[in-house]
Design a protein that fits this description.
CATH class: Alpha Beta
Oligomer: single chain
CATH topology: Alpha-D-Glucose-1,6-Bisphosphate, Chain A, domain 4
Structural class: alpha+beta
Organism: Kibdelosporangium phytohabitans
Number of domains: 1
Helix content: 10-25%
Protein name: Polyketide cyclase
Pfam family, one: Polyketide_cyc2
Largest sheet: 7 strands, antiparallel
Strand order of the largest sheet: 1-7-6-5-4-3-2
CATH architecture: 2-Layer Sandwich
Distance between the termini: 44 Å
Radius of gyration: 15 Å
Order of helices and strands: EHHEEEEEEHH
Number of strands: 7
Shape: globular
Amino acid sequence: MTDHPDTRIVSASREISAGAAQIFELIADPARQPHWDGNDNLAEATTGQRVHAVGDVFTMTLTHDGAIRDNHVVEFDEGRRIAWRPSEQGQEPPGHLWRWELEPIDSSSTRVTHTYDWTALTDENRYRRARATTPEKLQASLARLAALAVQ
């Protein structure tokens, strides 16, 4: 089965009743990510890995097999955008990307867009799992993020 490139970018957005800086802290701190992960894929990350720049790498333990993933930060604009490419520990990323974009609406609300992009993924063994990442799963992450942000 061949995928059209347009079907390899999945995105979801929602308005969250919190400021962009507050929401960004939940995303840029890997130790907080398992609390809002709508894929239920992230088990834990050690504290002290807060992302600050492109080139940072943070590690995450996965729920399904306990594997550790390196996450290579490839886009970063404090309070506005962060994206990373996961890989097996010590390996080059295989080509998929997770991105978060925050647009402040006003001081107490932010439009947050979550995107999963696997247009550069070439390992066909990873396609089934990539296809399983749907807009609904991204919306689940946004909903959990929103619940944490307003606490």
